[in-house]
Input
Amino acid sequence: MIARRRIRALLAAVVAALAQGCASAPGTDDPWEGFNRKAFAFNESLDRHVMKPVARGYVAATPSFVRTGVNNFFGNLADAWTSVNQFLQGKPREAISDAERVIVNSTFGALGLWDVASRLGIEKHEEDFGQTLGVWGVPAGPYLVLPFFGPSDLRDGPSRFADPSWWYYPDVVDREPLYWTAGMLDAVRTRANLLPAEKVLDEAALDKYAFIRDAWRQHRRSQVYDGNPPAEPEN
Output
């Protein structure tokens, strides 16, 4: 997986360079807005010309039960990482519950294609290493738009490279072409899941960049505090 390692190292270097080289402007809540808007425009162009058409084609070409199975499969892989992060956040009960989901769905759900665990009442959670860092008290830092990846911040940007999505595909497929196919399928199905929300976003946002930035920050803060964030300190 030489190519994958090179891309991972390159993206990590970009984030590190931003962290060291971008000076924060006092009194602003988006000190890297100039770079962020350029990255946002790049991502919008990529989405408009590549990802959205591919996602629409994926939806048109596949029955809903196939898309559900694909979502369940990748969701099952994510549940394993969620369980690890639950332990790291000091939530053993939730960690065990998420581990149970993986065991049940992998065993009785054909490697996760069927979400048997939810039918049995085992609740699904979503936790990643960025949330874990937030629970540990690492500040979010400035808002950051990553090319190809989208909204993030200085804490969550580097933490994405700890996500097993960078390396768990080789555990499922052992050939480079199949690895990239799995990664692209994950990206396409994720984009397809966002198609229904597009119209609402386009109608609501006068400044799409600012709308997504503020909504993402609020949602991310809610995730770190499990839906019950404390009041923000007054400036």
The longest helix spans residues 33-61.
